[in-house]
Design a protein that fits this description.
Elements: E1 4-8, H1 13-17, E2 33-37, H2 41-53, E3 63-65, E4 70-72
Antiparallel strand pairs: 1-2, 3-4
Length: about 80
């Protein structure tokens, strides 16, 4: 059993944050979404983001629910 993460493209942090309470998540908001098992945004993607994009990775979530059980964290793509 592993943790599932939804990765999606949003035009900005506000649009991403607005999906936190949607029952169907970002796909309900018609945002392009992919669900990956075990690919952690903090561990794998966060540490890879900075050297790939030249942008410092910020661990601050743009939205949080259920006492931190559900988070939306920004990742930068495509590279600047």
């Amino acid at each position: 059993m592993g943790v599932l993460f939804d990765y999606f493209a949003a035009p900005d942090n506000d649009a991403a944050a607005a999906t936190i309470d949607l029952v169907g998540g970002p796909s309900e908001a018609s945002l392009p979404t992919v669900q990956l098992k075990g690919v952690d945004p903090f561990v794998q993607l966060g540490t890879a983001e900075s050297p790939l994009t030249g942008v410092d990775y910020d661990l601050a979530p743009v939205a949080m629910a259920d006492e931190g059980a559900r988070l939306i964290v920004p990742l930068t793509w495509p590279p600047c």
